[in-house]
Amino acid sequence: MATPPDTLDKVGAGLDALDVPVEAHRPPIWRRFLKTGVPPIIAFALLLGVWQALWASALLPEFQLPAPVNVWNELVRSISSGEAFGILWTSLHRAVLGFLAAVVIATPLGLLIAKVRVVRAAIGSLLTGLQSLPSVAWVPAAILWFGVTPSTIYFVVLMGSVPSIANGLVAGIDQIPPLLPRVGRALGAGRFASARHILLPAALPGYLAGLKQGWAFSWRSLMAAEIIATSPQLGVGLGQYLHNGSSLNDINMVIAAIFLILLVGIGIELLLFRPLERAVLRARGLTGAL
Amino acid sequence: MTATLETTVLSTVDTAVELAGVRKVFGHGGSAVVALDGVDLKVKPGEFVCLLGASGCGKSTLLNIVAGLDAATSGQLQLNTSRPAVMFQEPALMPWLTAARNVELALRFAGVGRLARKRRALELLELVRLGDVADKRPHELSGGMRQRVALARALASTTVSADGAPALLLMDEPFAALDAITRDVLQSELLRVWETTNTAIIFVTHDVREAVRLGQRVVLLSSRPGRVVREWDVRDSSDEVLDEINTHLREVISGHAS
Question: Where would you find the membrane-spanning parts of this chain (chain A) (predicted)?
Fold first, then answer.
């Protein structure tokens, strides 16, 4: 041998020292805020400015384009009277319950489709098709089946979110590099151990993307169902609030409702899904994502 | 101790792996491809054997059959070892687990308890000199370090058995994707690990120099179908042996030119 072993050991230690990727240390919190917090605030302020200018130009009548301050007053009124919290609670708890039920149904369904060939052939494309069917299309049928009851609303929410979650899981499993389950087999993992320790964790990013989309679908399906199916029995959710605003020709209420719907959507994304996704992707070295 | 027990002990000492007339055919009828045609091979416990051949000689197929990932069409395979461990060209570490947890995964599948798992995983990482980075995830390690974690994991899965059966490590061109300096270092690392653990190794490569440097014995396979062409004892290798093996390998390959 040309080189003595202890020289090679030193070379190896040197390589290790050189090869370890340098950890980028995180910038201080104010700088991160400057980078990620400030742009959306500026964008929002610009939007408000354009809105205010349009209103001031009086191109559209007041009942079509309200003044920002009037919408703000409507929001303040509904919040200070406590009405907004009741409305938000009604809609949010429905959306969350519906979403959780969808997760419970869609996860085994997705696993079955991904791993059992017959099931995939039978209902795989149906599920993809359902994903492109607007769930509001189920509202008329659901009202005929269940009447104007919470069942109708939950049915529509489920039809909206189950396909997304199941498809996300299927995509996540399909994208697992085949070498990983193979390694599992070589290490002696049985079917169950392989699913538990290799397939499910490996499919997690795709599954999470499906969950995120499933949440978005259940939220907007819920809004569609609440707008169409209104009855005293259902109480007042965001959709009904919006519907009421429309019936009263109160554009301030309509815009305030839309604002609240958006707020929930953005809030859940920022508080729940974004941090979850970031943690999962960062652990795998996929730092390209925010 | 009874006489029968004596003989089994003797036979396990004698050979770790025995392949007799192993044949593997992929596909059926006219489109069938014979990957392996009557391969005989014996590996002693603790022996380091290099399987050498050009692409299409069925080296990987042979390794998969020994690993139990693939079944032979006909022929005999006898293993007197613990569960064989496999290392591939890619490290194939689970990207969501730390280096230590990757090694522990092998032990978990073997049913080792939590504390013992932790201890053994750290021991093995120390063996490949990666004790310091046990808590790093694969993406934080270099290619060579990842392959060493994979080596530790492979060792974990094959050296786990309590009955003292000899360990067997199957390596499918594990250093082919690494740069020359790293490969050089890892080859010496592997030799050191092999000497300390007394594991039998079947090492597949297409690099004659690598085969001669690492192995005690080099087995040359022909391509399509794969057969054993010749064997060399390379324990005290010289440049002549290297040239001779090279010549034979070239002959095997150029035989396919027509």
Answer: 41-60, 95-114, 126-147, 254-273
